């Protein structure tokens, strides 16, 4: 809407839009058209109109509509002092921000959201059968199953889906043009933390650590995955070069158990339920949970193109809220069994409820005759720490997936929408961190996100 049109539209509200902190103006008006022509002080820009409307409403409420009292007070203390006094007892700036951010009509309701059938995608998947999308007005939205991450990437880039379940390194890679044409993508929220494992073929029961894995063939779900980064990290910390002393193949998660049973691979670092499914099938055993490498590490995420978020801001925010609500619901252990029932069917995970429940509750057999009870085997927290993005970028550079100078902080803040996620978490009544960067500890080694290059150069085994 142009400024001239706005001025014409709001010309009848000059009293309502007069400066409420000015003792010389009157806020008394009798209705539309009573205010005469717009004055020089009358706001015409949309955001200024919202600000003035909020200010006027708050001041009117404080003085209970008594304009003479308001004008007397403003004349006594002055407009600046009055603004400070009122702001000290009422969150005026927050109210303005909320008004500007108030949800408008959804540009689109029936979305297609791509997903891979793994428990890491629980919030996105359960949003369909458990009606989290409908709660936020996205009636008719459906999740669409893909066979592998390359398919998800292509669907997202070709706009065959509106948004997608992605591995947390993928939006970074897409934005940088690593492995594909550079396309700006956003990662508004993490879906799960922990939830992966190194699973080995049952014949490798005597393996104790990386040195016993030399010559192994592993599979991971995608190059730009936490699985690949964590497997490489684990092997290298044990003195095994992941590019020279083992083979790492990309295999779609649904095909991993079959490859393990056939003896095509010795093991994999995989999302669940395929670690637990290998145990269920008697093909392998769970060697190590990834939470033992990095407690609370991110894995999968909700992602969308910057174009989608920009062109459909209300719809984007509705999906964002849906994902946060679903993620926080999944965070509660008492909800996990119901979730397992909801997402196990063929159109979602296509897994036995027993297997999905073992993953989500953390009460599981490991394939070696031991039963475990680890409630944090997988957890769900939407907050996308930008320090986690910096760590991912260091590992992408370490192994040669990106080259040259990397502006770690700028990329992290461009892609991982931590501040936006925090705002929506607070709006929903959920606790959220006040900071967007923190230190992390991976296999006993501290990572300071303010010193990424120093951290990168500290590794003996690297490609850079």
Structure description:
This protein is of the alpha/beta class and 464 residues long. Among the domains are: 3-101, no CATH class; 196-292, D-Maltodextrin-Binding Protein, domain 2 (3-Layer(aba) Sandwich), CATH 3.40.190.10. Helix content is 40%, strand content 14%. The strands form 5 sheets. Strands 2-1-3-11-4 form a 5-stranded mixed beta sheet, with helices on both faces. It has a 5-stranded mixed beta sheet with strand order 8-7-9-6-10, sandwiched between helices. Strands 5-14 form a two-stranded antiparallel sheet. Helix 2 crosses helix 5 (92-101) and helix 15 (336-343) runs antiparallel to helix 16. The longest helix has 19 residues, at 313-331. The protein is elongated and about 90 Å long.
Assembly status = single chain
Cα Rg: 27 Å
Secondary structure category:
alpha/beta
Q: How many strand segments?
A: 16
Termini separation? 51 Å
Helical content class: 40-55%
Count of helical regions: 20
Low-confidence stretches: 1-15, 29-39
Largest sheet: 5 strands, mixed
Question: How would you write the strand order of the largest sheet?
Answer: 2-1-3-11-4
Overall residue-averaged pLDDT value: 91
Question: How large is the share of residues in beta strands?
Answer: 5-15%
**Tertiary shape:** elongated
């Amino acid at each position: 809407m142009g400024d001239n049109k706005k001025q014409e539209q709001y010309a009848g509200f000059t009293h309502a839009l007069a400066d409420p902190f000015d003792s010389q103006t009157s806020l008394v008006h009798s209705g539309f058209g009573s205010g005469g022509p717009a004055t020089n002080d009358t706001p015409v820009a949309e955001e200024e109109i919202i600000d003035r409307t909020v200010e006027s409403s708050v001041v009117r409420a404080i003085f209970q509509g008594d304009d003479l009292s308001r004008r007397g007070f403003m004349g006594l203390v002055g407009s600046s002092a009055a603004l400070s006094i009122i702001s000290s007892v009422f969150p005026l700036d927050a109210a303005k921000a909320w008004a500007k951010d108030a949800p408008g009509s959804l540009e689109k309701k029936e979305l297609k959201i791509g997903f891979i059938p793994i428990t890491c995608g629980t919030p996105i998947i359960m949003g369909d059968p458990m009606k989290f999308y409908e709660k936020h007005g996205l009636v008719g939205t459906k999740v669409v199953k893909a066979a592998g991450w390359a398919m998800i990437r292509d669907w997202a880039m070709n706009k065959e889906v509106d948004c997608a379940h992605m591995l947390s390194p993928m939006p970074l890679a897409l934005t940088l043009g690593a492995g594909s044409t550079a396309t700006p993508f956003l990662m508004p929220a993490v879906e799960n933390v922990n939830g992966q494992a190194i699973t080995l073929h049952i014949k490798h029961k005597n393996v104790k650590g990386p040195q016993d894995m030399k010559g192994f063939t592993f599979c991971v779900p995608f190059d730009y995955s936490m699985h690949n980064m964590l497997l490489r990290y684990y092997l290298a910390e044990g003195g095994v070069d992941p590019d020279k002393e083992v083979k790492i193949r990309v295999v779609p998660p649904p095909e991993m158990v079959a490859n393990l049973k056939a003896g095509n691979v010795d093991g994999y670092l995989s999302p669940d339920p395929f670690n637990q499914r290998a145990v269920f099938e008697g093909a392998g055993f769970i060697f190590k949970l990834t939470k033992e490498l990095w407690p609370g590490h991110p894995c999968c995420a909700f992602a969308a193109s910057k174009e989608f978020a920009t062109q459909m801001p209300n719809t984007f925010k509705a999906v964002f809220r849906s994902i946060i609500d679903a993620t926080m619901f999944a965070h509660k252990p008492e909800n996990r069994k119901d979730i397992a029932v909801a997402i196990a069917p063929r159109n979602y995970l296509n897994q036995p409820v027993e297997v999905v429940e073992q993953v989500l509750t953390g009460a599981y057999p490991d394939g070696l005759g031991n039963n475990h009870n680890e409630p944090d085997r997988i957890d769900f927290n939407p907050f996308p720490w930008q320090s986690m993005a910096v760590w991912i970028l260091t590992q992408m550079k370490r192994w040669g997936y990106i080259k040259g100078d990397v502006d770690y902080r700028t990329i992290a803040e461009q892609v991982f929408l931590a501040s936006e996620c925090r705002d929506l978490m607070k709006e929903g009544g959920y606790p959220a961190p006040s900071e967007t960067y923190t230190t992390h500890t991976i296999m006993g080694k501290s990572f300071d996100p303010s010193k990424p290059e120093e951290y990168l150069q500290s590794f003996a085994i690297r490609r850079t």
